[in-house]
Amino acid sequence: MTDTGLRALPIPPGPAGVAAVRSALADALAEPGHAGFVYAGVPAGVQVDSVLRAGLPLERPDIAWVCLTSGSTGDPVGVLLPHAALRSAVAASADRTGGPGGWLAALPVTSAGGLMVVARAVLAGTPLVAGDWVGGAGRFTPQAFVAASEALRSQAAGGRICVSLVPPQVHRLLADPAAAEQLAGYDVVLVGGAAVGDGLAARAAQAGVRLIRTYGMTETCGGCVYDGRPLAGVQVRGDEAGHLEISGPMLAAGYRARPDRTAAAFADGWFRTGDLGSVTPDGEDSTVTVHGRADDTVQVDGINVALGAVEEVLRDQVGVLDVAVVATPDEVHGMRLAAWLVPSCAGALEDEGLVDRLRAAVTKRLGRVAAPRRMDVLDALPLLTSGKIDQVTLRRWSAP
After folding, report:
1. Smallest Cα–Cα separation from 21: which of 144, 97, 110?
2. pLDDT band per the 50, 70, 90 thresholds, residue 362
3. Can you tell me the mean pLDDT for 342-347?
4. 374: which of 30, 69, 320, 338 fits an S-S bond (Cβ 3.0–4.6 Å)?
5. Cα(366)–Cα(345) distance, rounded to whole angstroms?
6. pLDDT digit string (tens) for 258-300?
7. What would the 3-class secondary structure string for the chain be?
8. Is pLDDT larger for residue 92 or for residue 281?
9. What percentage of the chain carries pLDDT values higher than 90?
10. Cβ neighbours of residue 294 under 8 Å, at least 6 residues apart?
11. Residue 73 has pLDDT above 60, yes or no
């Protein structure tokens, strides 16, 4: 192994952090195998020495960046991203979406989704505008999105404009007429990080926004399946139990200083995603349907319940803007389900029959045991700096 000098790159919140990553990533991608430092983007103030192990040599000399997982399970790990993987991911995305364009950085650049936005702008030499909310610098609001979008449109000077979002952001934008109109003006709207329900997609289409539902993870340099179709060079397969595996040129090289986890997840050019789904052949292409995390299926009264399926039913109901469903141990039922709801408007809270209606909808679609026994309303779901829902916090709130 060759020590190329792994260093943590502190990333402050807001546009300054995006600028720091753009500069470092431009250097890292300039010349594969160069002798400069390899950076790991770290939110300012976060101590990750036990994850990065900066004193140890890098596993491979072609690593360009180390991206930390979100840590939603409480166990963050550094993912080794080679030069070729990042370049392949950028090229495949541009090929599928019609070419390069200017980008709005709306997601934290410490996450794969945000990092890839910067990489696309760096490699294409296109404008990159950072929202002032990025990385926890402020609240993501429709008004802030409109202002950042107008700045991007000005810099793009008539060229294509693109954005990558997570579902909660899309929900919020579609609820605001001005923001929804602005979103409809984007040439590319990638949405990932969590399942995009049919209801959200339908509301976006009604507003003139064509969402591209992406599926991927840090280990695949972000989304590598767009609207159910793998990007160029990507292969997806499922085993008899429905566990999905991915192969392709944008695959990570493994995990930093964790040969045990690398061996468990990567084998013979394939990455075991930990997700359940199905792959349907379609001529030269294939269609990938993701059912959710394998570890998101729990037993309630001895019956398997997929938390993602419960969320999808609830999210499609009138009066619900967003939802997260978590499970906590229960001595009687095995697991107890709790749903945390964000209403679509203040009027939804005045609907005394809302909870009963939601439980009935889940029961009709998935059965009685899948209906959450607890339902609570929040102004907004707690999020990690990556923009993903903070499942650890919700489980703590849901504990009896």
Report:
1. 110
2. very high
3. 73
4. 338
5. 26
6. 999 999 999 999 999 999 889 998 766 789 998 777 778 888 8
7. CCCCCEEEEEECCCHHHHHHHHHHHHHHHHCCCCCCCEEEEEECCCCCHHHHCCCCCCCCCCEEEEEECCCCCCCCCEEEEEHHHHHHHHHHHHHHHCCCCEEEECCCCCCHHHHHHHHHHHHHCCCEEECCCHHHCCCCCHHHHHHHHHHHHHHHCCCCEEEEECHHHHHHHHCCHHHHHHHHCCCEEEECCCCCCHHHHHHHHHCCCCEEEEEEEHHHCEEEEECCEECCCCEEEECCCCEEEEECCCCCCEECCCHHHHHHHEECCEEEEEEEEEEEEECCEEEEEEEEEHHHEEEECCEEEEHHHHHHHHHCCCCEEEEEEEEEEECCCEEEEEEEEEECCHHHHCCCCHHHHHHHHHHHHHCHHHCCCEEEECCCCCECCCCCECHHHHHHHHCC
8. 92
9. 54
10. 243, 274, 275, 276
11. no
Average pLDDT over residues 178-182: 98
Nearest CA-CA partner of 278 in 313, 239, 307, 246: 239
| Mean pLDDT of all residues belonging to the chain | 88
Partner residues linked to 329 by β-bridges: 335
For tokens 């950028």, name the residue. 90
Q: Is 170 exposed, middle or buried (0-12, 13-18, 19+ CB in 10 A)?
A: buried
* Residue 217 CB partners (closer than 8 Å, separation 6+): 112, 273
pTM, 2 dp: 0.83
β partners of residue 326: 338
Q: Are 300 and 329 in contact (CB under 8 A)?
A: no
Residue appearing with tokens 């469903």: 325
- Distance, in Å, from the CA atom of 18 to the CA atom of 21, rounded to the nearest integer, reads 5
Closest CA to 384 of 129, 183, 142, 113: 113
Strands 303-306 and 297-300: antiparallel
Residue among 367, 364, 378, 369 at smallest CA distance from 317: 364
Q: How far is it, in rounded angstroms, from Cα 142 to Cα 168? A: 12
**pLDDT for res 35:** 47
Q: What is the pLDDT of residue 34?
A: 54
